[in-house]
Amino acid sequence: MVLWENLQAVLAQRGVAGFGVTTAAPFPEMAARLEDAVASGRSAGLPFTFGDPATAADIRVSFPWASRLVVVATSYLPAAGSPGAGVPGRARIARFATRDHYRPLREALEAVAGLLTAAGHRAAVVSDDHRLVDRAAAVRAGVGWPGKSTLVLVPGAGPWVLLGSVVTDAELPVSEPMRRTCGTCVACLPACPTGAIVAPGMLDARRCLAAVLQSAGWIPLELRAAVGDRLYGCDDCLEACPPGDRALATATAEQGSVDVSRLLAMDDATLRAEFPHFYVPRNSGRWLRRNCLVVLGNTGGAAAIGVLAGYAGHRDSMLRGHAVWALGRIDDPRGRGVLTRVAASDPDAAVVAEAATALAGTLTG
Questions:
Q1: Residue 363 above 90 pLDDT?
Q2: pTM
Q3: CB neighbourhood size of 5 (10 A)
Q4: Active-site option among 128, 169, 316, 332
Q5: Is-catalytic flag, 128?
Q6: Strand runs (DSSP E) across 52-179, as ranges?
Q7: d(Cα 156, Cα 166) in Å, to the nearest integer?
Q8: Which segments of the chain does DSSP mark as H helices, in order?
Q9: 211: which residues sit within 8 A by CB, 6+ positions away?
Q10: What are the C-alpha distances in Å from 155 to residues 146, 160, 163?
Q11: Are residues 101 and 76 in contact, defined by beta-carbon separation less than 8 angstroms?
Q12: Whole-Å CA distances, 207 to 95, 168, 281, 314
């Protein structure tokens, strides 16, 4: 009991949004949900917990000695601020990624682990880790309740939280799950710009912009306009969530808005260094460049023609394809000239198709 009181005191001093304890028993319902998402394609081929649902839903696969999970939630508001929206030539970064907001969470978890090991127990920090579904642990530990957006909602912070756990063999007292639910509220469902929340508590990652913008490959044509001015992540379902209103109202500092042309002018090493905490495949700058080109097509206007024309001749065919799509979104004779040239001479059939479609749109639009 003294150990638990010490843990509570440390977490309270660090100002965490919530914490609780649950057993290390498996989460069979979560395993079934992950498996269904993979089988149906709704996982969109994403790795993380989808890669091995049996492991992600049973912490004892990775830590056979586990008895308890100390689950912690930290809020990234107001520190993350608000980026504004709709500024030509600028892109938004979702609030969770304006900087490494996982650092306070990691520090809190490491403090818990330190107390446990000092008391003679085994302890390991697990956060944003394929070996545990953080949401399931947080709900069972009473840290929050499951939102219809699939996010965990924490009293006072709503969905604006990051989650992590400390695995331990200490027999700590177990918390009770919350009885609170979203009730009749479905505000997050229509707020999603692509309809990715296909049912309460069910997400189709193939349509989720947050997932699309950090995944490899060409952004599906039908989703590019919906990307709007987003560079990385999407906050729409969080902004619509009433339990998060109070926290969101405190996020008044201007943060998370970046100049797209400046990013496109960087070399790959500089671009990666600008956002070292982003999750993009192989930490490659080409995926951020791809996102930037789509943003310029949606918001850049005539001022973006020069940058886009340059990328229409890029050595990377995927970037050329997104550049010509973006040119097709801007009614400008210089852009049509580039599209005509690319449609007639690009060596990649996919780029030619993009240019031809874009050119047809500019002529009929």
A1: no
A2: 0.93
A3: 9
A4: 128
A5: yes
A6: 68-75, 90-93, 123-126, 145-146, 152-153, 161-168
A7: 23
A8: 2-13, 28-40, 53-56, 59-62, 102-118, 134-140, 188-191, 209-212, 221-227, 236-239, 245-249, 260-264, 268-274, 285-299, 305-311, 317-328, 333-345, 349-364
A9: 44, 46, 205
A10: 12, 10, 14
A11: yes
A12: 20, 37, 18, 28
- Paired with 166 in beta bridges are 70, 125
How far is the CA of 360 from the CAs of 156, 336, 338, 344, 350, in angstroms? Answer: 51, 10, 13, 13, 15
Structure tokens at 182: 């979203």
Confidence at residue 362, expressed as pLDDT on a 0 to 100 scale: 62
Structure tokens at 30: 């979560």
- Residue written as token pair 């229509």: 190
**Which phi and psi angles does 78 have, rounded to 5°?**
-85, 0
| DSSP bridge pairs for 194 | none
Which one, of 286, 290, 365, 364, lies nearest residue 326 by Cα?
Answer: 290
In which region does residue 127 sit, left (phi positive, over 0), alpha (psi from -120 to 50) or beta (all else)? beta
| Unique residue bearing structure tokens 């992950």 | 34
Q: What is the pLDDT of residues 246-271, one digit of tens each?
A: 999 999 999 999 999 999 999 988 99
Give the CA angle between residues 129, 276, 225 to the nearest 5°: 90
pLDDT in tens, 211-246: 999 999 999 999 999 999 999 999 999 999 999 999
Compute the distance between CA of residue 102 and CA of residue 125 in angstroms, rounded to an integer. Answer: 13
Give the three-class secondary structure for 230.
strand
Say if residue 224 is exposed, middle or buried (CB neighbours under 10 Å; 0-12, 13-18, 19+). buried
User: What is the residue whose two structure tokens read 């069910």?
Assistant: 202
